[in-house]
Amino acid sequence: MLDACTGSESLFADHYINLRVPHVGDAIAAQVRETGLVTFDGLRTRPETLAFTSRLMAVTPHPHGAQDGLTLIHDTGTHAHRAGFAGLGNGELSAHTERSGTPRPPRLILLVCEQSASIGGETLLADGRDVHARLVGESREAAVALCQPRTAYFGAGTGHATQVFTVQSDGRISMRLRQDGLARWSPLVQPYLPVLRSAIAAGQHRLMLRAGQGYLLDNHRWLHARTRFTGDRRLLRALGEPRFALPSGFAPHPTAAFLSRTWEPDSWANTTRR
After folding, report:
1. What are 169-226's pLDDT values in tens digits?
2. What is the DSSP letter of 111?
């Protein structure tokens, strides 16, 4: 259940950067590299959001986006029951990373609240670095299985065979996940999905965005979810690649940095056929 998350009254304040201070771009870049998350306020209009977005990233087009690259996230009244379109309804969303069914998911997500819901609609954020560390502590076997190549398939017919955790050659780790009807799992990892969901739930932080507030996060590190809501909840979202240096993935906690480099998918596939 999405309601099972940790108290997080300070999450917004702990990651807050004032957009009106000098050299704010450098401050944002440094914090994204360190924690993967920046919170902010003061973006009241679409042009302001677009101008701010353009400073930080090269926007990646999205099928639901407008010509300016921004996507309005709201309840359309027609998409809720279509696989992969739950974000355009008013129901709860399980923890996921954006565009997980594409070969190269965008690195950054920027979300700005235009209007909050009458009831509910809270954002739930979980740091993949903490999720990974919890998972290693609870079940090392699960952590190993969930980094094996091609053990998940995210998306429809044009989706992507992948894995939840990808270990880079330098030991850094990237995460991707979806948990809806467009996620299919290898029998090798299916038994470990409950412990993965438990690790995510234990690390989730609740965030209620008000008009003008928003966040920027590393889509290869942070998972986001949403509670059910009523009312005219509207947010603007942008996806893209950073205009600043950002190393691949995240550095795992020292106690969790035991995984070897993920096998190359082709090599793994050849091994399984022998």
Report:
1. 999 999 999 999 999 999 999 999 999 999 999 999 999 999 999 999 999 999 999 9
2. E
Contacts of 81 (CB under 8 A, 6+ apart): 89
Residue 33 reports pLDDT greater than 50: yes
Domain boundaries, the chain: 11-273
* C-alpha–C-alpha distance, residues 238 and 65, integer Å: 9
Quote the pTM value.
0.89
Q: What angle do CA 86, 226, 82 make, to 5 degrees?
A: 5
Helix (H, G, I), strand (E, B) or coil at 263: coil
Superfamily of domain 11-273: Clavaminate synthase-like (3.60.130.10)
Helix (H) or strand (E) holding 113: strand 108-115
Cα–Cα dist 239/74, whole Å: 16
